[in-house]
Amino acid sequence: MGKYITVHGGKIRGFYSRTPDNAREAAQFCNTDYFKDLDSLIEVSDTLFITTTDGAIKEIWDCIAKKNVKGKVICHFSGSLSSDIFSNKEGTGAVVCSVHPIYAFSNKFTAYQNLTEALFTVEGDSEALQQMQGLFRLLPNQIVQIPTEAKVKYHAAASVASNQLTGLLWMAVELLKESGISQETAYQMLEPLVKNSVNTIFSQGCQEALTGPIERGDKETVEKHLQALQYPLWNQSYRAVGNLVTELAKEKNPNRDYCSIERLLKESK
């Protein structure tokens, strides 16, 4: 994020870390300074970004809150935590918020190059978000404000669309491997199928993209799938996602009867 901000004309005063080598590495990458103590960084900054793991944010805030942060913006980048993590903020004089880019950061040195299309969600104190407008205007990203109380639900949605989708695709690859297909060929087979589905979803919506035996009401094929999935976890996953697909199919085809498929999917193996 520091690199991304500097690339788009933002000013990063520097980095501080309890591990000095990490701060030096980040500072060198962003062509800025690293600080040996937190107080020095706070003194020259108007905004403090906490970019630790989620579990460390509260500890870092408790440390920062004891210092002179009056009038400063305190912001974290966690997807699952809201600005409520900044407890007793009133006594510090600081204003608080969180920013989360909906993007999978797989490599800290290259991820910034493809971040321009990601949407950023923000929540927190209105004054903090107002002060952040200067930064937001520099970035090409769309900014979406969400209610503080909706942060966990928002993050669950992002996790389903990214992490859990990856888990389902891994299951598909493993099933193809069990069918005697090499892993390399499995990925080649699935790529056009998945890309076409995703393209249709984002151009026409989930209802229009939905096809397959559940949508058609083909109970016999669904039953064969379940019989073939001997590994309990895969069978359970098929049933769980199948129930979601059935709900979507009912919305798409309100006059079609899906009762028999619903009963089949809810039966215990």
Walk me through the structure.
Strands 3-4-5-6-7 form a 5-stranded mixed sheet. The chain has 13 helices and 7 strands. Helix 4 links the parallel strand 3 and strand 4. It has 269 residues and is α/β, with parallel strands linked by helices.
Topology:
Elements: H1 2-7, E1 14-15, H2 20-30, E2 33-34, H3 38-44, E3 47-50, H4 54-64, E4 73-76, E5 95-101, E6 120-124, H5 126-131, H6 133-138, E7 143-145, H7 151-178, H8 183-204, H9 206-209, H10 213-216, H11 219-228, H12 232-252, H13 259-266
Parallel strand pairs: 1-2, 3-4, 4-5, 6-7
Antiparallel strand pairs: 5-6
Q: What would the principal axes of the Cα set say about the shape? A: elongated
Mind describing the biggest β-sheet?
A: 5 strands, mixed
The end-to-end span amounts to: 47 Å
Structural class: alpha/beta
Which series of helices and strands comes N to C? HEHEHEHEEEHHEHHHHHHH
Q: What fraction strand?
A: 5-15%
Describe this structure in a few short sentences.
The chain has 13 helices and 7 strands.
Summarize this structure as a short list of keywords or feature phrases:
single chain; 269 residues; alpha/beta; 5-stranded mixed beta sheet; two-stranded parallel sheet; 13 helices; 7 strands; 54% helix
